C-alpha cells in the first residue's frame, strides 16, 4: 500500500520534472529566436534574402494575404507531419522488432547490425533514386526514407536498454523456469522504459527530417516540396515562414516527448537514459 507521504513525494517529483521540462522548452525556443536574429545581423544577410522573426510574423498574421498564407503553410505542414508519422511508425516498429529479435536470437544481431550500420553510413540522398525506382513516389517511399532515418539510432538505443537489465533479475526468471521470451517480456522490456523514451525523443525530429527529404526528392508534397518551389520563385518570406514553422514544430514535439518522459520516469522512479 502506498502511504500518503510517498504519494506526495511522487507527485512532487512529477511536478518538478514537468516544470523543468517546460522551462527547457521555453529557453530552447527563446534561444532559437535569438540565434536566428543574431545570425542575420552578424552575417549581414541582405534584407531580400534574410527574413527575421518579425518578417515571418507579418507574413503569417498581418496584411491582406496573411490568412491565405497561413492556410498554405499549415496545410503543407499537415502533410509533412502525416509523412513524418508514417516514417516514425515504420522506423520505431522496425527498431522494436529487431531489438526483440536480437535479444531472443543472439546470432541475428551479428548478421544484421553490420548491414544496418552500412545503410546508416550511406547518405539518404545518394540512395534515394534507388528507393524511388523500387517503391515509386507514393507512401511506401515516405515510409522507407523516414524509417531509414529513424531505425538505426532507435535500434541502438533500445538494444542498449534491453541489455542493461540486471543479471540478477535474469537469473531469477531462469530459476523459475522462464526462458528468453519470459526474460524479454517480464524483465527486459519494463527495465528498458527510459531507453524507449530516449529512442522516441531521438526519432521524432529524425522522422520530420526524413519526411522533408522524401517530399523534396520523391512525393512533391508538403514542406519539403514547398520550400524548394518558393526558393525557385524567390518567395523568401514564404521560405523562411515554412522553415520556421517546421523547425518550431519539430522542437515542440521533441519537448512534448521530453515532458512526458520526465513525468513518467519521475512517477515510477526510473533514471533517464542518455541519448
Give the fraction of residues assigned to helices.
over 70%
Q: Provide the succession of SSEs.
A: HHHHHHHHHHH
What's the shape? globular
DSSP strand count: 0
CATH homologous superfamily placement of the domain at 67-257: MetI-like
CATH C-level class of the domain at 67-257 is Mainly Alpha
| Rg (C-alpha, Å) | 22 Å
State the helix count.
11
The CATH topology of the domain at 67-257 is given as: MetI-like fold
Alpha-beta content class: mainly alpha
Span from first to last CA?
A: 34 Å
Strand percentage lies at under 5%
GO cellular component, one term: plasma membrane
Subcellular location: Cell membrane
Pfam families: BPD_transp_1
Domain ABC transmembrane type-1: 73-261
Write a structural description.
The chain is mainly alpha-helical. Helix content is 84%, strand content 0%. The chain has helices spanning 4-42, 53-61, 66-104, 106-121, 124-135, 139-163, 167-175, 180-191, 193-219, 222-232, 236-268. It is globular, with a radius of gyration of 22 Å. The model has no long low-confidence stretch (mean pLDDT 85).
